[in-house]
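Journal club prep, shared notes

We agreed each person brings one worked example of a sequence with its structure written out as tokens. Mine is ATPase, PilT family. I'm keeping it raw so we can talk through how to read the token line rather than staring at a rendered picture. Sequence first:
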Amino acid sequence: MEIVPDTSVVIDGRVSERVEEGEFAGATVAVPEAVVGELESQANDGRETGWEGLEELQRLVEFDDDGTITVEYVGRRAAQSEKRDADEGDIDALIRDIAAERDAQLVTSDEVQAEVARAKGFEVAYIEPREREFETLAIEKFFDETTMSVHLKVGVEPMAKRGDVGEMAYETIGDAPLTESDLHEYAADIEDAARISPDGFVELDEPGMTIVQFRDYRIAMARPPFSDGMEITAVRPIVKTTLDDYEYADDLRERLLERQRGVLISGSPGAGKSTFAQAVAEFLTDADFAVKTMEKPRDLQVGPEITQYTELGGQMSKTADSLLMVRPDYTIYDEVRKTDDFEVFADMRLAGVGMVGVVHATRAIDALQRLIGRVELGLIPQVVDTVVYIEAGRVTKVYDVQTEVKVPEGLMEEDLARPVIMIRDFETDRTEYEIYTFNRQVVTVPVGEEGGQSADSGVDRIAKQEIEREIRSVAHGHVEVDLRGPDTAIVWVEDDDISAVIGKGGGRISDIENRLGIDIDVRTLDERPNTTDTDTGGGGMAVTPEITSRHVIIPMEGHAGDTVEVQADSEYLFTATVSRGGEIQVSRGSAIAEELEKAIDHGRTITVVPS
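Then the structure, token by token:
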């Protein structure tokens, strides 16, 4: 008797099982090299199925050594193109060809493989896949009612985040460091559950990283070389809430039911954003709205009435195209992080779908600022009209977002009226921020409690920067600006530049004043009292970057040509040379700009130091 096992039955360990039972005793087991290659590839990628299959081959060799069976390795290894097309059946076809050439019985636990072989007239032994009940996972022993996440790594004691929402502590929960064998055992248990149980599925399977969703648990398994050691991180929600559990519940219900909305749920990591999003999704479903989700990975804990979608073909834009055919009333987008995510969110909202997005932000206003440059400014209130900020599991701020045509706070001239995005506190209806275009830049300006500018108003900062930009366009030497009020400023320039800046009959400075709506007094630097730069204490100067639609700009007047290091809270970001215009420009979308914007979003102090 001669048999040819395929990969599925080897991984399941069913060949050695049949040998022990006597069914395959005395048989010649012709193992295709294509099976060996597939198992080796899986093991190199760190997948437990590869290791399990290789262990089965070693058991078969032991049976060969004691004369119970004869093991032969036959055929050729699969080519790289055949490995890539394994899902299309190329490797299965190689295995069937070997069974046909040797007139052997094909042994498989793959139902499709068995049916194809029977259709071609092969002798087939189909062995049902190993069934296992998964009431619990082995790693669940590390969880208690206060545990949000468990962190297991080779050579480290088990760790966990425990506590209440917003007050989590990262603590050691075991005495002995975990071994490689421990982690492989846990990983095999998790992968079996995902493969066999209807309660689990594999969300992502790439070399070095596998993400599994099993019931309420989202489990990430990282392996070298992607990580420096094997690691398993399991996360689960520790609370399930309803909208009634939050502040502003009645007002938010009324707002969501009034019409389809664009909502951003913002907060720091672990603040309870996704928990609140789940409560919103359940409320909308109970209110007879058709609700879907877009998630990667899919880990929102929602009822069966809500279909959860992930990336289609590796792109959320394709998921969005599919959802537009389904026409949900509301879509929960968890999480909106990258430019592509914001663009997809905006496209769906502008198509009339109610959208609820989950965004990382350390302040409520930061969630809106992340749209700047990614969505046309005038469209922002159509894309997002509500911002909800979550802190320690509570709704602490709700913003209403609208557009008005008006003169921005802090500007005086009537001809400076323009579209202004008004961000108002939902509870008090008081305007807290204004967003508008000021001399080609998009600015976000805090508004004081009594309707005026705050002491550190962005209007002052941007106005000063714009005056410097205008004066530098005609002056050759150093330029400094002092604001003396909402509509007056003093400009200090070199003696040689006075006439160029003022212009014939004062015409040039008058043009600048008219463009900016500010009265400007031009004086020489010799008349200016001595001042010093603000130093951060470590030789660095604190700066305030500006974000435009295309660039992140760091003002560095007086330092043209200098090479400097840009840091965030003293952490090195990058090195740059200051332009002749006295600034550093970083193109948005680049890796450097992403890091810089992230630091700004998290409220870190940006400094520059001489390189």
